[in-house]
Specification:
Elements (H helix, E strand, L loop, with lengths): L11 E4 L6 E4 L2 E4 L7 H17 L56 H4 L6 H35 L7 E4 L5 E2 L6 E2 L5 H4 L3 E4 L18 H8 L30 E7 L13 H9 L24 E8 L2 E6 L4 E5 L16 H16 L3 H8 L2
Antiparallel strand pairs: 1-2, 2-3, 4-7, 5-6, 8-9, 9-10, 10-11
Helix pairs in contact: 1-3, 3-6
């Protein structure tokens, strides 16, 4: 718990839940009173304090030739999604969105692990609404955090000299395709995340259609800091997209790889069957031992742990998925953005051959070869 990864000047690691948390503060465990502190408020205070402290140093780090990097990962909106006390009574009338994929009516063309899910019951939907509200409530502390950080940067005089990236490491499904709460699929709900960038020269209010990935962040930060990433890095710098003349979309990434690995007792399962299975998501109590098991993703032996239970190719037009069971999914994302109609069994042979070839290339590549495979026709 007291480990501090190499390379960081200051380190504050969460050990605990939203309330009653313990922080690893540069190798020392510090407890915070749950009656007074919310984890994300503590992190916000640490971040703002760092900016204020170092801006007031002699000389301030802003005046040196070494750009600074702050990585701030919040607890929200992870389960049990406990909001800060000041936000507990907000958003009471908010409901979970019901897109066409929510509680999907006909899943007969889906893989078996999806077909195994019965339609969601009214009680299950009510629990999902509750979890959705709690997740939004917990994110209000993150909204406050962003405001605090911008205030600290503004007061230091460095807001307009700082790039700010706001993103997430994964998406989340909640009721789509009859699935419960999770993030282990190749469906759009799980693989799409927000990415908002503010900084010097970044046009205000622009929205780009380019495919960008989380593995682009490291080479981007290196590029903006004026250094080169290691040769083994797969991603690409986003810097060419951050000015008035971004790289044309046709000259950018055209496809990417999606994988989910099998872990012991940690893969998707059909949705919540009863209160005992959903209530822990709202309270933080231990989950039932088998709550995530499915026939598709379960690692039946130690040899399977860490191996992909699905591999998928995402392009501008298609999502192509191959499961370890031999099942497949193929969706036309232009005509079917909610992924309701699996085309695999009636797709042209030439299309399947091309998608298979592109998927194999991305699964076997590394570094520059991956960037080439993502862009090649």
């Amino acid at each position: 718990e007291t480990h501090v990864p190499p390379g960081w000047d200051e380190w504050y690691g969460i050990s605990g839940n939203f309330l009653s948390s313990t922080l690893n503060e540069n190798g020392h465990m510090v407890n915070y009173d749950p009656d007074q502190y919310h984890t994300d408020d503590v992190l916000a205070g640490k971040a703002s304090d760092y900016i204020e402290r170092t801006a007031g140093a002699d000389p301030p780090f802003f005046a040196t030739d070494r750009p600074f990097l702050m990585w701030l990962g919040t607890k929200a909106p992870h389960q049990p999604a406990t909001p800060a006390p000041r936000h507990e009574d907000t958003l009471e009338d908010v409901e979970l969105p019901r897109p066409p994929s929510f509680n999907e009516k006909d899943v007969r063309d889906k893989p078996r692990w999806v077909q195994d899910n019965p339609p969601l019951s009214p009680d299950q939907v009510a629990y999902m609404d509750e979890l959705h509200r709690k997740r939004l409530q917990s994110m209000m502390a993150v909204d406050d955090m962003v405001g605090d950080l911008f205030d600290a940067l503004r007061e230091s005089g460095e807001l307009d000299n700082t790039y700010v990236f706001f993103t997430s490491d994964n998406g989340f499904h909640l009721g789509q395709h009859r699935l419960g709460a999770g993030k282990w699929t190749a469906y759009e709900e799980d693989i799409r995340v927000p990415l908002v960038v503010r900084g010097p020269g970044v046009p205000e209010g622009e929205k780009l259609p380019h495919m960008v990935l989380n593995n682009d962040l490291a080479p981007t930060f290196a590029d903006l800091a004026g250094t080169d990433p290691p040769k083994f890095v797969d991603g690409r710098s986003l810097a060419p997209l951050l000015d008035e003349t971004p790289t044309p979309e046709e000259e950018w990434r055209q496809r990417f790889l999606v994988e989910a690995v099998a872990e012991r007792d940690s893969v998707p399962r059909p949705p919540f069957v009863n209160e005992s299975q959903v209530r822990p998501l709202l309270t933080g109590d231990p989950l039932p031992r088998d709550w995530r098991l499915t026939s598709a993703g379960r690692a039946d032996s130690s040899e399977e742990w860490g191996r992909p239970w699905l591999k998928a190719l995402r392009t501008e037009d298609h999502l192509f998925v191959e499961y370890k069971t031999g099942e497949h999914e193929l969706y036309d994302l232009q005509k079917d953005p909610y992924q309701l109609d699996n085309l695999y069994d009636r797709a042209p042979e030439g299309l399947l051959k091309r998608l298979n070839s592109q998927l194999d290339s991305l699964r076997q590549c590394e570094a520059q070869d991956c960037r080439t495979a993502e862009a090649a026709e």
